């Protein structure tokens, strides 16, 4: 039963992801992205990682999506009329098929990387998901964490500058 639920959630996530890319209205695309985030949080729950599911919902589906919607409203992005040629559609379809074949190959023949890592089941039971994640984030991955925060700040400032270019 759990496999069927996972397959349903994965199907909805992929469908929402396709809708994010193909939708012409940016607000509808952002709402589809929120649906994708909810599906990913459900996958985290299925993987017995409730903290990651909560962070997925709070940070991405909550804060980041509010920021994206704010920028869309601030920049007044309307629908874009794009003329698609048959070459672009054929190229995109070919790339999708090649990526799908590669993904299926990796799923069937690939192996899990880093099997002998420090995150064992006994360590998870002793410390818990949250403490291990925080310890790793603020020691080993502190620089990428700070660089990401600076990039988000630059993106916000850039959106405000683009919105105020008429003044």
Task: Write the element-wise H/E pattern from the N-terminal end onward.
Answer: HHHHHHH
Low-confidence stretches: none
Biggest β-sheet: count, sense, barrel? none
The CATH topology of the largest domain is Four Helix Bundle (Hemerythrin (Met), subunit A)
Tell me the name of the CATH class of the largest domain: Mainly Alpha
Q: Examine the secondary-structure arrangement and name the CATH architecture of the largest domain.
A: Up-down Bundle
Structural class: mainly alpha
Q: What is the typical, i.e. mean, pLDDT?
A: 78
Task: Please report which band the strand proportion falls in: under 5%, 5-15%, 15-25%, 25-35%, 35-45% or over 45%.
Answer: under 5%
SS elements, strand count: 0
| Tally of contiguous helical segments | 7
- Compute the number of structural domains: 2
Q: Please, what is the CATH homologous superfamily of the largest domain?
A: NADH-ubiquinone/plastoquinone oxidoreductase chain 6, subunit NuoJ
Cα separation of the termini:
59 Å
Shape field? globular
Helical content class: over 70%
Task: Calculate Rg over CA atoms.
Answer: 20 Å
Features:
167 residues, mainly alpha, Four Helix Bundle (Hemerythrin (Met), subunit A), 7 helices, globular
Structure described in brief:
Helices cover 80% and strands 0% of the residues.
Notes on the structure:
This protein is mostly helical and 167 residues long. It is 80% helix and 0% strand. The chain folds into two domains: 1-78, NADH-ubiquinone/plastoquinone oxidoreductase chain 6, subunit NuoJ (Four Helix Bundle (Hemerythrin (Met), subunit A)); 122-167. α1 (2-22) packs antiparallel against α2, α2 (26-46) runs antiparallel to α3 (50-75) and α3 (50-75) runs parallel beside α7. The radius of gyration is 20 Å and the shape is globular. The mean pLDDT is 78.
């Amino acid at each position: 039963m759990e496999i069927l639920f996972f397959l349903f959630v994965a199907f909805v996530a992929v469908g929402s992801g396709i809708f994010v890319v193909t939708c012409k209205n940016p607000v509808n695309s952002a709402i589809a992205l929120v649906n994708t985030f909810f599906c990913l949080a459900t996958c985290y729950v299925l993987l017995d990682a409730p903290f990651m599911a909560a962070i997925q919902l709070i940070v991405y589906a909550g804060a980041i999506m509010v920021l994206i919607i704010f920028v869309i409203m601030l920049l007044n992005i309307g629908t874009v009329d794009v003329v698609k040629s048959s070459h672009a559609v054929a190229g995109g379809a070919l790339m999708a098929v090649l990526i799908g074949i590669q993904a299926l190959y990796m799923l069937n023949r690939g192996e899990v990387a880093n099997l002998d890592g420090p995150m064992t089941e006994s360590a998870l039971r002793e410390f818990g998901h949250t403490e291990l994640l925080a310890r790793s984030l603020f020691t080993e991955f502190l620089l990428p964490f700070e660089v990401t925060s600076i990039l988000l700040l630059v993106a916000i400032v850039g959106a405000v500058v683009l919105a105020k270019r008429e003044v």
